[in-house]
Every structure is written in structure tokens, then in C-alpha cells.
Amino acid sequence: MDIIELQTTKSFGEFSTVKDATETDTSAFTAAKKRAPWIIFLMFAGMITSGVIGQFEETLESVVVLAAFMPMLMDSGGNVGTQSLAVSVRGLALGTIDMKDLWRMMRKEFSTGFLIGLICMMLITILILLFYGNIMLGVVVGLSILVTLSISAVVGIHVHGTNSFSLSLFSFFPG
């Protein structure tokens, strides 16, 4: 049982990019040193997102209720991207995928994200129509979730997949 627990801990650490920072005997400084680069990268990615949102400031001012849906869109996109990332990490760890599979996997993940986005688009459009009585708002948010989930699925596998595949060619698996 200890071996299974150790392997599970290692797998979760690799998946969440905190490899070797999940040990209980690791100091806070060491754990922070291993985690900080990813958090800093995500912070800069968030700044890019803020810049994109800033480009739509006039639209957001005219339809303030759109801002209420931004966290849902970002969270859903992050969740879909994480699912795609998990698929690529698992496949690479098990040796069931390699570089030649990258484009096929990206097409599959885009299609998966699109189908999930389509379901979410229909659901959110109906819910917004029921709660806000505004079909146009429902369509705008619905299309936004469709595009967000479709792109996030590809980004999740592309960013991790491309880096991991490239590094795995040199027998280095970053998790």
C-alpha cells in the first residue's frame, strides 16, 4: 500500500507541476522555489487576459451584466484546459502517445472542447433567457463559452504537450 500511495503522490505532484514539492519533509522555501515559476507564468498570462478584457471596456460598460459571467468563462476554460493537460500527461507517462500523435490529439481535444462548449452554450443561453429575459445576452455568453472551451482544450494539450513531447525526446519528463 505504501508503494501505491507514494506513486499516487508522485503522479499528483507531476500533474500539478509541483514535482518534488509534495514531500512532507520539503521546506517551505524549496516548495515555493519549485512552484513559483508556474505561478509567475500564470500571473503574466492573467495580465494578458486583463489586457484583452480591457479592449472591451466600452462594451462591458454598456452591458455591465457581461462582467458577471467572466469568472464562469475563465473557470470553465481553465477546467477544460486542465482536463486536456491531464490527458496528455497520462498518455505521455504511460507511453501511449508520442510526438506523431500530437496533431491527432489536438484535433480530438478541440472537438471534445467544442462539443462540451456546445452543450454549455445551449444550457447557459436557456438559463440566461430564463433568469435575465435577454436572449441576446444569452447568445453572446453562449458563443463565448463555446469559443472559450474549444480553444482552452487545444491550449491545454498544446502548451503541455508540445513542451513535454519535446523534452521527452531527450528522456526528460517534466510532469
UniProtKB/TrEMBL annotation:
Q: Which Gene3D superfamilies match?
A: SLC41 divalent cation transporters, integral membrane domain
Specify the superkingdom: Bacteria
Q: Which residues form the SLC41A/MgtE integral membrane domain?
A: 70-157
Membrane spanning residue stretches? 38-56, 110-132, 138-159
Mention any Pfam family matching this sequence.
Answer: MgtE
Q: Which UniProt keywords apply?
A: Magnesium, Membrane, Transmembrane, Transmembrane helix, Transport
**Bilayer topology term:** Multi-pass membrane protein
Under PANTHER family, the record lists:
MAGNESIUM TRANSPORTER MGTE, SLC41A_MGTE INTEGRAL MEMBRANE DOMAIN-CONTAINING PROTEIN
Q: What's the name of the protein? A: SLC41A/MgtE integral membrane domain-containing protein
